[in-house]
Amino acid sequence: MDKKPTTGQCLCGAVKFRISGEFESFFLCHCSRCRKDSGSAHSANLFSSTAKLIWVSGEAKIKTFRLPGSRHMKSFCYDCGSERWSCFFDHLAAHLRWIRVSH
User: Residue 87 has what pLDDT?
Assistant: First the structure.
């Protein structure tokens, strides 16, 4: 059975993406950085060693904040500020390593 790709978009619809492949694990992170990012008690993260991220539209509208001296990052739509896809992407392997689930 083929699984449909996971799709998503920002609040204003300018950025749209599709993720193909399986997620292997789910994790709620309660570290202070993730709590600050989410404005919540945690942030939800999905992990995959094989999933691929395909930009449908708006890739140029994505801005990423990287906390100096750490691997912590947060990506969002430049137009609406919607955070939907903070992720670590292995560009050499073209695989998605983790993605933050929308809040």
Answer: 55
